[in-house]
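**Archive record**
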Amino acid sequence: MIPIYSQKNRIKLIVVIIALIIGAATITYTNILVSKLSEREQELVQLYAKGLRYMINAPSDDNIVFIEEEILSSNTTVPVILTDENENILDSKNISIPENISDKPDKINNYLQGEIEKMKAQHEPIVVPWAEGSVNYVFYKDSELLSQLRYYPYVQLIVISCFALVAYFAFSYSRRAEQNRVWVGLAKETAHQLGTPLSSLMAWYEYIKANPKFENEPILEELGKDVRRLEVITERFSNIGSVPTLRDENILEVTENAINYLQNRISRKVTFTVESAFAPEITAKVNVSLYDWVIENICKNAVDAMEGRGSINIQLVLLGKGSIAVDITDTGKGIPKSKVDSVFLPGYTTKRRGWGLGLALAKRIIDNYHEGKLYVKWSEVGKGTTFRIVLNR
């Protein structure tokens, strides 16, 4: 069965691809505009340089005035610096001088020399032939508008990414909240639906038990076990629908009890072993009813993976920082690496029959209600799998 979540992941992937295409198109188009504007500014500076050349050999003062007013003064955006052949500064245009050095010629000169170095990094200077075989240089750099336009698409992408990230987390939180309501509502309704027939069964059990005709009847004992089992199941669903109470429990004893109960109700061809690497009196904060449910779900999945034949080893390990690990290792068919992250998704199952909720519910119980962790520690196809439960002490 393919879970709905995998379909949602495909939709997310498609949305990301579309967003990347839009982002790439935005950057490409902006770069085209930047290239065209850069060429225009370069032509403007070259025109400025030609105007300077023409002024040297201008036949009349009128032409000089025309060039000065119509060509040289038309550049109001591109920063330029005119120097002699030794790069001594002769003139500058469209460069903002800091106010704190505006009345200090030496510092202004040093500042402009620094601007020349920046200009060299962007563009080659334009050579202007001057009198008696000497030359002048026109240094220039991108205008403020062009510089802003270069970085605009990246700023735009960052803003869009931040917005998308906030929207994603808001959506995820909303979805988790909705899932929580569904889980809680389902659990409460199940506990409610089980409550009425269970009360009736308990009354009938007590009635039959009090009848002398059924004294020492083996079936009565089995009926009592089933009634108590239904009580446990009802308690589990009730705990899911509310905040469960965690108590300091002897984790080795609780685990052994869960395995003993389970072992009598599955294939005899499956062997269980429980080992502890720490003192028997070590405790962990658990809700016994829900913890048993987790052990049961993981072990039943392991039995299915082993097709009713193999071994399950439970190893209890003391971790640092006040936590305990319960490692459940089976000799089943293992989980492919590509599926390891999917086994805890609701609806994921490899069985023909089943809802694919067992491991999803187990992870929810450990991660949400016990504030611990449940994950696949190790798995190899054809050899088996180890699930690790981390609990707080």
About this structure: Residues 245-392 form a domain with the Heat Shock Protein 90 fold (CATH 3.30.565.10). The chain has eight helices and eleven strands. The longest strand covers residues 310-319. Residues 1-5 have pLDDT under 50 and may be disordered.
